[in-house]
C-alpha cells in the first residue's frame, strides 16, 4: 500500500486527514475517523480488500515471515483491530497459517505485518487502530492474539461485533462528549475481549464456554471491586461453595482469585484515569476507590502490568485527547 496515499506514516498520520470526528481522505473508497485516546477508525469498501499498515519508525525490519492469508467466502462486513507500536518483528516467529473468516468476525492483527486478504469484491472492512498499551497488552501477547479470530458465535463476539460495527458508523456524527464516551467504551470492551481471547486460547477451549457458576462469581467480583474486604472467603461464602473449590475453578481458568481481582481493579483504575471528569482526583484517591489500600503498592503493580506509572498513563491518555481536539 506504500505510495497509494493509504499507508500510515509517522505518528497516526493516515494519508490526508482532518483531526476530529470527521472523514479523512485516504482514498476514494476509504474513510478515517480520529477518536480520543489515540483510537482511529478506518472504513474501507475497496476491492481488492487491504488492511492499513504502518512502518517500523526507522527500526531495521525483522526476519521475513511467510505471508499470512485471510480468506472470506461471503460478501459482508469484517471487523479488524490493528495493533500499533509492536516492534514489527514478533510475528516473524509465527507460522504463516491461513484463516477462513466469516462476516462479523473480529480479527486482531499487527499493523507492521498485516495479513494478505482474499475477500469477495463487496466486502466491507471496519478497522480499529490503537496501541497494545491501550488494551493492557504486552508485546509478547500480540502473536497469540492474532492467531485466531473472535466469531459472533462466542459470548463476547456476539456482544462486540454489532457494537463495534455501529460504533464505526456513529463516530462520524457523534458530538465530542459522546465520542469520548464511545471511544472509551470501545477501548474498554476491546481490552476485555483481548484478555478473554488470550485466556481461552491458553486453556485450549472455544470462547464463551465458561460455566454459569464461574460467570456468576465474576459478576459478583465486579460489583464489589471497591470493597477492600473482598477475599476468597467472602466470595466462596456468597456462592455456597468451599474456598478449596473456588480455587479449583480459578485454576481451570488459568489464574487465581487474587490475580483476577487485582487485574479487574487495575482495569477500572486505568479507565478512571483517562476520564476528563476525574482529572481532579489524585491517583491515590482513584486507587482507594477501587480497593487498593496502599497507593505505593498500586503504583508498583500498575507499572508492572502496563509498563508505565499511573501518572504516565494519565498523561498518555490525555495527550491522545488533546491531539484529537486539534
How would you sum up this structure, described in words?
- With 326 residues, the protein is of the alpha/beta class.
- Helices cover 40% and strands 14% of the residues.
- A 5-stranded mixed sheet has the order 3-4-10-6-8.
- Helix 5 (232-238) crosses helix 6 (243-252).
- It is globular.
- The model is unreliable at 1-28, 88-94 and 321-326 (pLDDT under 50).
Name the strands of the widest sheet in spatial order.
3-4-10-6-8
Major sheet, described briefly?
5 strands, mixed
Q: How many H/I helices?
A: 10
Distance between the termini: 27 Å
Write down how many β-strands occur, each being a DSSP E stretch of 2 or more residues. Answer: 10
User: Structural class per helix/strand content?
Assistant: alpha/beta
Gyration radius from CA atoms, angstroms? 20 Å
Residue stretches low in confidence (pLDDT < 50, at least 5 long) are 1-28, 88-94, 321-326
Q: What is the N-to-C succession of helices and strands?
A: EEEEEEEEEEHHHHHHHHHH
The amount of helix comes to 25-40%
Return the average pLDDT rounded to an integer: 78
Amino acid at each position: 500500500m506504500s505510495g497509494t496515499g493509504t499507508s500510515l506514516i509517522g505518528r497516526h498520520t493516515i494519508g490526508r486527514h482532518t483531526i476530529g470526528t470527521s472523514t479523512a481522505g485516504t482514498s476514494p473508497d476509504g474513510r478515517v475517523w480520529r477518536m480520543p485516546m489515540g483510537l482511529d477508525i478506518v472504513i474501507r469498501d475497496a476491492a481488492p480488500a487491504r488492511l492499513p499498515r504502518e512502518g517500523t519508525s526507522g527500526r531495521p525490519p525483522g526476519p521475513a515471515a511467510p505471508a499470512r492469508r485471510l480468506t472470506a467466502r461471503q460478501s459482508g462486513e469484517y471487523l479488524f483491530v490493528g495493533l500499533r507500536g509492536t516492534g514489527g518483528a514478533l510475528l516473524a516467529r509465527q507460522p504463516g497459517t491461513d484463516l477462513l473468516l466469516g462476516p462479523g468476525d473480529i480479527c486482531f492483527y499487527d499493523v507492521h505485518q498485516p495479513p494478505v486478504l482474499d475477500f469477495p469484491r463487496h466486502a466491507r472492512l471496519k478497522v480499529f487502530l490503537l496501541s497494545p498499551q491501550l488494551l493492557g497488552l504486552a508485546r509478547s501477547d500480540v502473536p497469540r492474539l492474532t492467531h485466531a479470530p473472535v466469531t459472533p458465535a462466542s459470548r463476547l463476539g456476539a456482544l462486540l461485533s454489532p457494537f463495534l460495527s455501529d460504533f464505526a458508523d456513529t463516530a462520524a456524527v457523534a458530538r465530542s462528549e459522546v465520542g469520548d464516551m464511545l471511544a472509551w467504551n470501545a477501548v474498554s470492551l476491546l481490552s476485555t475481549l483481548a484478555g478473554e481471547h488470550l485466556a481461552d486460547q491458553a486453556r485450549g477451549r472455544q470462547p464463551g464456554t465458561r460455566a454459569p457458576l464461574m460467570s456468576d462469581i465474576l459478576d459478583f467480583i465486579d460489583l464489589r471491586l471497591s470493597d477492600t474486604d473482598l477475599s476468597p472467603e467472602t466470595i466462596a461464602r456468597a456462592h455456597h461453595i468451599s474456598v478449596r473449590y473456588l480455587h479449583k475453578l480459578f485454576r481451570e481458568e488459568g489464574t487465581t482469585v487474587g490475580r483476577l481481582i487485582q487485574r479487574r481493579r487495575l482495569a477500572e483504575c486505568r479507565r478512571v484515569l483517562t476520564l476528563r471528569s476525574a482529572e481532579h482526583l489524585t491517583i491515590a484517591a482513584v486507587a482507594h476507590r477501587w480497593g487498593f489500600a496502599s497507593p505505593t503498592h498500586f503504583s508498583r503493580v500498575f507499572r508492572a502490568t502496563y509498563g508505565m506509572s499511573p501518572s504516565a498513563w494519565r498523561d498518555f491518555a490525555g495527550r491522545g485527547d488533546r491531539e484529537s481536539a486539534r
